[in-house]
Write a structure and sequence with these properties.
The chain is α/β, with parallel strands linked by helices. 23% of the residues lie in helices and 19% in strands. The chain has a single domain, classed as Putative cyclase (Glucose Oxidase, domain 1, 3-Layer(bba) Sandwich), CATH 3.50.30.
């Protein structure tokens, strides 16, 4: 039996209870990435064993589908005819198809962004606060894969199926590895496996992801970065008038950047084969000045 959903008032209270506003000063632009200290990065690098690398990105989605309403535009500007190869592409990073990282300026709550910055800082010219360019030096830290279908003994979670703190802790027990300060937590729901079996569907009709009850757990563990093969949030959220509590509280209150629409299937296979759930994770966003997101190809090194 599923736990009872949180109420809208309970979620609203999390904005104060789980807030990191001011924790790293009034001008902070990095949020929980402050947990990724040089010492944390060095420890993550030293944990590499085989040197095997695995991409956690989907191919840029150029074909329209119910879960890809804004396909990536790819034009060839140079071919055999011109005597060289060249191309042009354009994309909308946000959505349900492109693997991307959300900047902390992506989500507003009651007219505010992370650290108390006003939403008016985001204009037609970009975000003067919390833009993705602040991550130009990249994120290099320990990654930890939580493979929820494996924990539950299924191939993939059904659309709309929620994940609870008990699931996250069950994954820790199964692997013998606990989430620690500065980690990048990657949560696999088996979305792409489900899509292979059942075909594409409209994500707003249902998508597996974290229940709002996981927010306090993420805060207590001092997770630096959260990623998923979905959007981290379960959809529907089970909470009236609060459609995306993970996005809203994690980004705005806690300052956690989110990685959306990752492909974690190959990583899950490699982790199962090597009996490892931890790895070095490297994320290098594009340096888009004042941008709200960036497409990314996160690389796991085992």
């Amino acid at each position: 039996m599923q736990p009872q959903p949180m109420s809208a008032d309970e979620v609203a209270s999390l904005h104060a209870r789980l807030s990191n506003w001011g924790r790293w000063g009034p001008n902070d632009q990095l949020g929980t990435l402050n947990f990724v200290t040089p010492e944390v990065t060095a420890a993550a690098v030293s944990s590499v064993r085989s040197g095997q690398t695995v991409s956690c990105s989907r191919p840029l989605p150029t074909q329209p589908a119910p879960d890809n309403l804004n396909p990536v535009v790819h034009h060839m500007t140079g071919t055999a005819t011109e005597g060289y190869g060249a191309d042009y592409f354009a994309l909308a990073a946000h959505g349900y198809a492109t693997s991307h990282i959300d900047a902390l300026c992506h989500i507003f709550h009651e007219g505010k962004m992370y650290n108390g910055y006003g939403a008016e800082a985001v204009t037609a010219h970009g975000a003067s606060k919390l833009g993705i360019h602040h991550l130009r030096s990249g994120i290099v830290t320990r990654g930890l894969l939580v493979d929820i279908p494996a924990v539950r003994g299924v191939e993939a979670l059904e659309p709309g199926e929620p994940i609870f703190p008990e699931d996250l802790e069950g994954a820790e027990r199964a692997t013998g590895v606990s989430v620690r300060c500065g980690d990048a937590l990657l949560v696999r729901t088996g979305r792409w496996r489900w899509r292979e079996q059942h075909g594409p569907w409209t994500p707003t009709d249902g998508m597996a992801g974290l229940d709002a009850s996981c927010l306090a757990w993420l805060y207590e563990r001092e997770v630096a970065l959260l990623g998923s093969d979905g959007i981290s949030d379960v959809w529907p959220s089970r909470i009236r008038n609060v459609p995306m509590p993970i996005h809203t509280v994690a980004i705005v209150a806690m300052g956690i950047p989110l990685l959306d629409n990752l492909d974690l299937d190959e990583l899950a296979l490699v982790c199962a084969e090597t009996t490892r759930s931890v790895f070095l994770l490297m994320v290098a966003p594009l340096v888009l000045h004042q941008g709200t997101a960036s497409p990314v190809n996160p690389i796991a090194v085992l």
